[in-house]
Design goal:
Strand order of the largest sheet: 10-9-11-1-12-13-2-14
Largest sheet: 8 strands, mixed
Order of helices and strands: HEHHEHHEEHEEEHEHEHEHEHHEEHEH
Distance between the termini: 21 Å
Structural class: alpha/beta
Strand content: 15-25%
Shape: globular
Amino acid sequence: MDLFPIFQELMQASESKILLVVLDGVGGLPLELGGPTELEAARTPNLDRLAEESALGLLTPVYPGLAPGSGPGHLALFGYDPFRFLVGRGALSALGLGADFREGDVALRGNFATLAPDGTVLDRRAGRPSTEENRRVVARLQEAIPRLEDVEVHFYTESEHRFLVVLRGEGLSDAVTDTDPQKAGLKPLPARALEAGAERTARLVGLLSERIREVLRDEPKLNGALFRGASKRPSFPTMAEVYGLRAAAIASYPMYKGLASLVGMEVLPVEGEGDAHEGKLRTLRENWDRYDFFYLHFKKTDAKGEDGDFWGKVGEIERFDALLPELLALGPTVLALTGDHSTPAALKAHSWHPVPLLLKAPYLRKDEARRFTEGEALKGSLGHLRGVELMPLLLAHAGRLAKYGA
């Protein structure tokens, strides 16, 4: 069901401020039956106090049983049906990086990987190299592989192990499969065409993987590449058009900037490397009066989960808890805190488990939840929502939706 025309009809002006905080991959699991999840193990005095004066619930980002990627997980939080508004990882990275990404180009999100002599994957993230090391290797590749046959090849550094390739030429297709096997101990998958006419692009992706391995054969760790999310440039309605919001995004990683720009948010610059907590807070404070809606993203909870680092993820949750008072001091009318998916350290991957949702707003009902955890969220008055149901709830609490119907 397309609700966008309804929102456009009901939108009304307000001086309210909405702050959506996304702790990427925040949902977790216990390491052993009966143990705490990462949120339950964390010491979070500020989140605990906030939970006592807020409403909580559980949120399934996309659909029960589906482990979502960050793209569909975030689009759902922004109110965009992830089954209707489809976008590949490559396009998101390209948009987030501000790459030269034109009509007809195909973007591929790449992971530098460590490959064994027999071609199997030893490490899908090549030991998480520094972004500076990434730039050095990308420069090598750009010099060595400017073209494949009659197709231009453009390489871009994203961050750590992540990089981007943009293919430019006639007749390219994004209907090709990933080469990332998603686990160590396996060989990279062959790129396959998903529809007629994509065979040539699939062959070029395979050739690109071979050339990268040849060029990087002397690198101790960054000696291979795994590709995901082949995609062309999409076009979506903006949050200004749908909700009447002046929306801004504060994020460090290119993919999340790409997601935000895709729905018409202005992506604000952030100083600092990595998750750059202080830089994000500074940007938020300096721009608070200019926008109605802020999307504030924190990545490291997800990264620690993917690494299987339970206590590292606990530490990132506690790190966020320490800066929470500064967010609250800005006085958002509506504050929502949630995740785009779960990334339990026990699984080292995105999972299908619901994430907790916290909502602080002027008009809330009594709530029994006392902590921002999965178990406490079950007690909350918000119940169990799907990701696409969050945005209308935020708009309603912010006084930005008129009555529906007579």
